[in-house]
Structure formats: structure tokens, C-alpha cells
């Protein structure tokens, strides 16, 4: 069974700035998870982010700040995990640190 990009049930790994911009413009509500493989709190947050991808209508994007250092700098990411919420391509919210799943889902529902 093939999935369209509008029906993502798992996080999308961002490849570069253009890819991020394309994804932000393609989806109404987007959660961007800026993370690093060495980051303990990022690993704690990962199952939550994956559940949000499968359980909500939001597109969930993952940005590896080590692989995409320039992008992370352009976006002003200074610590991980950082979560950004976008609506119709515009940033609506930014949270830093491990977050409770219920709080994240509530933000997505309020933005939808």
C-alpha cells in the first residue's frame, strides 16, 4: 500500500533546507523535531514524536542538527531537542526540551 506525502504516518527525515521548505509548504500543520544522535533527551522524545506522526494529521519532520548544521544555525536552533510547529508554512510555536505528549497533541489540535 503506497502512502501519499499528505498522509505521513511516520516522521520524515529532512535532507536539506529546500526539502524542509517544500515540506512546510505542502502540509497544513507541521511539527519539526530538531535532534542529535548524541542527545539523551532527544532519544527520550523520539517515541512520542513517532506516536504523534502516526496518531495526528500533522506532518512530523526530523532535522539532524549535526548533519544539517547550517540549516539549524539559520533557524536559530541552539539546543536540542527543539520542537517547532508550523501552520501553512508560518512558525506558530517553539518548544525546547522534552515535552509531554498530551501537550504536543493539544498544540497540534489547536493549530489544526
Automatic annotation (TrEMBL):
Domain Thioredoxin, residue spans: 1-112
SUPFAM superfamilies reported for this sequence: Thioredoxin-like
Disulfide bonds: 39-42
Site annotation Contributes to redox potential value: residues: 40-41
Active-site residue list: 39 (nucleophile), 42 (nucleophile)
Pfam families per UniProt: Thioredoxin
The protein's name in its UniProt record: Thioredoxin
Keyword set, alphabetical order: Disulfide bond, Electron transport, Redox-active center, Transport
Site (Deprotonates C-terminal active site Cys): 33
Gene3D superfamilies cross-referenced by the UniProt entry: Glutaredoxin (3.40.30.10)
Keyword Nuclease: no
Cleaved signal peptide residues: none
Amino acid at each position: 500500500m503506497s502512502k501519499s506525502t499528505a498522509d505521513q504516518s511516520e516522521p520524515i527525515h529532512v535532507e536539506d533546507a529546500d526539502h524542509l521548505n517544500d515540506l512546510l509548504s505542502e502540509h497544513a500543520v507541521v511539527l519539526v523535531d530538531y535532534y542529535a544522535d548524541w542527545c539523551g533527551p532527544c532519544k527520550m522524545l523520539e517515541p512520542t514524536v513517532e506516536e504523534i506522526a502516526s496518531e495526528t494529521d500533522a506532518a512530523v519532520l526530523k532535522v539532524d542538527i549535526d548533519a544539517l548544521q547550517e540549516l539549524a544555525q539559520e533557524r536559530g536552533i541552539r539546543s536540542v531537542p527543539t520542537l517547532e510547529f508550523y501552520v501553512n508554512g508560518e512558525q506558530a510555536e517553539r518548544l525546547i526540551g522534552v515535552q509531554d505528549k498530551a501537550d504536543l497533541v493539544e498544540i497540534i489540535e489547536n493549530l489544526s
